[in-house]
Amino acid sequence: MNAAAPATPLVWFEHVTRWYGQVVALRDVSIPIGNGVLGLLGPNGAGKTTFIRVLTGCMPPSQGRALLFGLPAFGTPDLYRRIGYCPDHDNFFEFMTGREFVETLLGVHGFGASDRKARAARALDRVKANEFADRTPRGCASASRSRRRSATTRNS
Question: Which residues, other chains included, contact 87 with Cβ-Cβ below 8 Å and sequence gap of 6+?
Answer without folding.
Answer: 149
